[in-house]
Structure formats: structure tokens, C-alpha cells
Amino acid sequence: MTWSQKLDSFFKISDRGSTVRTEIMAGFTTFMTMAYIIFVNPAILSKTGMPFAPLVTTTVIATAVTTVIMGLYAKKPYALAPGMGLNAYFTYSVVLVMGYTWQIALAAVFIEGLIFIALSVTKVRTMVANAFPITLKYSVGAGIGLFLTYIGLNNAQIIRYTADKLLPTHQAIDVVVSLNYINIPSVAVALFGVFITIIFLVNRIKGALLWGILSSTAVAVVWASYSSWAAASLYPAGFSLPSSPVSLPASIAPIALHMDFQGLINVGALGVIFAFLMVDFFDTLGTVTGLSAKVGDLDEKGNIPEKPLTRMLLTDAIGTTFGALIGTSTVTTYIESAAGVEEGGRTGLTSVVVALLFTIGLFITPIVALVPAAATAPALILVGLFMLSNMKNVNFDDYTEYIPAFVTLIVMPFTYSISNGIGAGIITYVLTKIATRRFKEISPLMYILAIVFAIYFIWLYWL
To answer: What is the pLDDT of residues 251-260, one digit of tens each?
Structure first.
């Protein structure tokens, strides 16, 4: 049996209508769209006083280990890494605003991970996932797509926003969003990538998203090499061609196993743990549900089969716990995995490829740093196009189905939060069903979730 046949047999690649080549291509695409986390996560967490270089190593290790578990254990094409938003909450709210040390914050993340492991093993998270009405499951996927489009537009600086106030989760309100006329090189490179990707898509050429990223990166590097103006726009942290493509990773000793449980007990940071729980719990459920709807993993009732769902959620929970141990904020399933899914990734081989590339990336960070946000933006922008197709499964003739789906769809990108979109959709679903006296269509767990989210929103926005 050849190595290709062995991979096919283990991951059931042919059974999922894929090929080894397609899975590898999908892995490269997912890696390219989320490689920014290697530098962005350390940049955010280092503001707490944590050393930058060890954070780079920790970020890659947490990403590679948890993603390979997702590939080999859950056998799904989804990657995990320290979550954006959660790392901002960790830094700006818990440490800089509330005044806790980063050691206490890591202890809170570790406790959160243990709670998630317990919830995953006891099937509580599975029960919650399957309690979602099918209309919300499909709208969550579409909402994630628009969220990714918004992230891509913002990363490319095609749009810009100004915020007058920041909430505890570092989400901006009183926001004005407008077209950006300042960072022309970034916008030009991103639009070039979008144009190239669309040409490949309409001609049904495999690897369209990946080729768009690579083409944009090439243009960015050449332009930045000859123009300081372009370099400043495309590489805000500084641009230089590396003298060597290889670099040795820093030790994680200064941040690994530095959790302060005694400090966590003394300050009684239950609110911090609760916030981490709510955001991570429903962000993960939303991401897994939305991606599963896109790859066709939902059964006739609109549920993800129990065994793979439990494995995915347990992997995510283990990732959070492991990440805290080695010194990073909450690890979660990444919505950028949708880019790999759109390239045809259907099995755990995609995740294994992502993990291997991150491991290699740890030793070639000078090369990885040459891929600017503007180059990965086209893939994220166009993923919204693909994910929006989930809405075709929503019953537009029934307003008690359509309105909650619509609310979920728009709240996610407009509030920059998957969990906010899910919460708003659940509350709206329950209220519209009650208003039409269709009580039998509301499960007891949906009532509970609606109340929990109502309390969460009140605590988050008004208290």
C-alpha cells in the first residue's frame, strides 16, 4: 500500500469526495490565511508584560499541537489557534483595565479550559449544539462568512472604523465605518488579489484562494522593496528582506507554567472566567456548526453527529487548557478554516498539513513575515461569498424562521462577535415563536439559553 493509499484509508479522503492533493492545497490555504497569528497574538499579549519572543514560540506550539489533534482525533479540516478577540479581552480588559496580572489571567483561562473539558465529556456542549434550530445553524454559517468578509476588508484597510468606546470584550461601539482613502498600497494589493482570485474562481481553477494570496504577496514584496511609502502601508511593523530565511525559536520558559491560582482565588475573578466561558463556548459552537453546514456534515435533523461533534469540542477544550499551560490566551477553532474548506478540504489531513506548516513556520518566521495582511485579505473577503450560500436553506416564507436568521446574520459582523450573533438569534427565535404561540417549536434548553444570553448582554453592556 502506497503512502497516498494509507492516507486515504486513515482519513477516508475518497469517501468524502476529496483527494490527497486537494487536502494538501486546502491546508496551505488555511495556513496562509491564519499565519498572521504568529505575530499578531504576541503583539497583543506582550502589552501585558509577557515577553514577545517566547510568545511567538508558544503561539506556534499551541496552534500546531491542537490542530494536529483536530486532524488525527476528530479528523476534521479545521485549524485552532489563540483566538482573536479573546486575546484582546485577555490583554486590554483583564490585565490593563481590571488590573490583574497576566499570570492570574492565564489561571482563569486554564480553569475555563477544564470546565470546557468537563462540559464536553458530559455531552453538555453537544446538547447545546443540537438544541439550535436548523434555521439558526445555517444562518450562523452565513454570518461567519460575512464576518470573515468584514475582517478581510478591515485587514486590507479597504474600510476603516473609528470607535468612541470599548466594551470589556474589546468590541467597539459608536463606530463609524467608511471607505479608506489613506493606505492606497494596501488597498491596491488587496484588490489585485481579489481580481486574480475571481479570475481563477470563474474559470474553475483549483487553488484559487491560495494563488490569490501568493500573487498578492509577490506584488507586495516587490512594491515594498522599491517604495518606502508602500512598505509603510503594507508592513506597519517594518519591512526588510531577510538576510536568512531561517531563525531559531525562543524558549517558552519565561511564560510556560506561570499561572497564579492563588492570585485568582484572592481576587475572586469569577466574572473574568464567566466572560471567557461565554465567548469561547459559543464562538466555538458557532464556528463548528457553520463550517459543518458548509462541508455537509449536518444530518437530516440539522445536527452534527454526536461522536465527531464531541471530538471537535473536546479538542477545542484541550487546546484552551494546553495553551494556558504553555503561556497563551484561549485557543479556539478558527473561522479562517473556511478558506481551506472552500478549497475542497474535507478531512483531517487538511488540519495535519496546517499543523506541519506552522511547525515549519516557527523556523522560517522571516519568510512568513513577508505575507502582509493585505495579501490574505482577498481569501477572507471572498469566503463570505461562499458561506452566504447557507442562507438558501432558510425558510424565507416563515418570519419566525427568517427574522432570527437575519438577526444572526447581521449581528455577527456588525458587532464583531460570533457569540453576540448567536445570542441575538436565540433570543429573537424564542420571542418570535412565543409571539405566534408556537410554543412546541421551542425546546426547554432554548428558553434557558435565551435567558442566559439576556443576562450576558445586560452584564456586558449595562453593568
So the answer is: 999 999 999 9
Give the pTM. 0.79
**Cα–Cα nearest to 83, from 290, 317, 263, 283:** 283
SS3 per residue for the chain:
CCHHHHHHHHHCCHHHCCCHHHHHHHHHHHHHHHCCHHHHHHHHHHHHCCCHHHHHHHHHHHHHHHHHHHHHHHCCCCCEEECCCHHHHHHHHHHHHCCCCHHHHHHHHHHHHHHHHHHHHCCHHHHHHHHCCHHHHHHHHHHHHHHHHHHHHHHCCCEEEEEEEECCCCCEEEEEEEECCCCHHHHHHHHHHHHHHHHHHHCCCCCHHHHHHHHHHHHHHHHHHHCHHHHHHHCCCCCCCCCCCCCCCCCCCCCCCCCCHHHHHHHCCHHHHHHHHHHHHHHHHHHHHHHHHHHCCCCCCCCCCHHHHHHHHHHHHHHHHHHHHHCCCCEEECCCHHHHHHCCCCCHHHHHHHHHHHHHHCCCHHHHCCCCHHHHHHHHHHHHHHHHHHHHHCCCCCHHHHHHHHHHHHHHHHHCCHHHHHHHHHHHHHHHHHHCCCHHHCCHHHHHHHHHHHHHHHHHHCC
**Look-up: residue for cell 494546553?**
322
Average pLDDT of the residues in 75-82: 95
Q: Which amino acid is at 419?
A: S
State the Cα–Cα distance between residues 33 and 64, nearest whole angstrom: 15
CA separation for the pair 38, 376 (Å, rounded): 14
Section 141-156 average pLDDT: 83
For residue 164, which phi and psi values (nearest 5 degrees)? -95, -15
C-alpha–C-alpha distance, residues 463 and 456, integer Å: 10
User: How many CB atoms are closer than 10 A to CB 200?
Assistant: 17
b/e per residue, 344-377, with b = 16+ CB within 10 A?
bbbbbbbbbbbbbbbbebbeebeebbbbbbbbbb
Closest to 158 (Cα-Cα) out of 374, 8, 369, 348: 374
Give the span between the Cα atoms of 83 and 105, in whole angstroms: 15
Q: How far apart are CA 411 and CA 177, in angstroms?
A: 15
Considering only 71-85, 153-167, 199-213, 373-387, which range has the smallest mean pLDDT? 153-167
Say if residue 427's pLDDT is above 50. Answer: yes
Q: Three cell numbers at 55?
A: 510568545
pLDDT at 323: 96
Q: What phi and psi, each to the nearest 5 degrees, are found at residue 49?
A: 105, -5
Residue 41's identity, in one-letter code, is N
